[in-house]
């Protein structure tokens, strides 16, 4: 009899709606002192634009945390898992990849009060618990902004310009009954006004990419950026590849950084490993940006010129191109050593496409000279990394000449 009662009790607890359990606890599952800021990015956006959107929200969360206002300074920024990115295959991976797979979350925490989504879920009884976000604001651009030329910071609740989806982070159990569209122009830090005017504990900003940087290129921006250290395991895999195949190590190449990013200081003395790193963005860039994307023949000629100038023999290739494209480039660079990183099955299975992309980025970041792809955010993040490591700008801000012209990349120098 007792056994039957116990089983019924377990089944009840297991399937019980979280909100019921939470209501019994006084209305909410969440710690009374904390408020949570969630953000979501337009679905087609790639990994490296998303990294930039994070910086905007990290600065918002930090500003709120530093405020004297008690409605703001208990904020927790919830890191949106890397779910269903259009460029990645998720065959071997769970659908929701936590930030810790790619970044050193302790480092992030030294800049802004962040928590992983799974840490937030730990407030709830089980993984099926219903999580109702109290207020959702979907950002959209003011429709008439370009016609009127009025670019003043402003926000206004509005009709939605189009139909937006209402499932968040690809979780079926994360919902909201209170979703509104907010026409918005201004920096992400302005969104703190929403928290000032509301008492909701959970607020989600959807289409977060609409909010801009306010401190782009400032010391604060660079602090946030420097706090985005990669997962240590990915860094070791990249270091191992550099050591084994590229004769490159931090001590030899003058590229060692302090263990803690807050101890970093300004320097321009990095030499880099004895290879040229290139980021060759292909796929949709070849189709949609024909004028800016060079032919492989032209790429090989541009790389040869730099190798000869620097008296180097080795080139590391990071690319999303096909195997055929890579083989063509290897043939065109006959006489030089051409290498790329290919993950072993463990690394591929554990870290997926995102991990491989980061390893490629790290290896390019430590090269003596880097050439990237014009207007690729993948290239931008490598350039920033090299600014942090302390290379001379002329070894970093180079992009391949296109078919029609040679675009000049913007130079964003690090400041401390
Ligand atoms: O990071 P990402 O958005 O930069 O590139 P762009 C998208 C994905 O392509 C990355 C893969 O997350 C990687 O999975 N990828 C690109 C690479 N280059 C490499 C590489 O060298 N090595 C490896 N391993 N992977 C944006 C797109 O791409 O460009 C947008 O996200 C749009 O959808 C826009 O197409 C024009 O800024 O280059």
Walk me through the structure.
There is one protein chain. It is built from 15 helices and 15 strands. By secondary structure, it is an alpha/beta fold. It folds into two domains: 3-222, 3-Layer(aba) Sandwich (Rossmann fold); 230-395, 3-Layer(aba) Sandwich (Rossmann fold). The strands form four sheets. Strands 5-2-1-11-7-10-8 form a seven-stranded mixed sheet. The protein has a four-stranded parallel sheet with strand order 14-13-12-15, sandwiched between helices. α14 crosses α15 (377-389). It is globular and about 70 Å long. It starts with a helix and ends in a 27-residue tail after the last helix. Mean pLDDT is 92; it is low at 12-16 and 23-27. Guanosine-5'-diphosphate-beta-L-fucopyranose binds at residues 44, 46-49, 87-88, 279, 281, 284, 318-320, 353, 356-357, 360, 376-378.
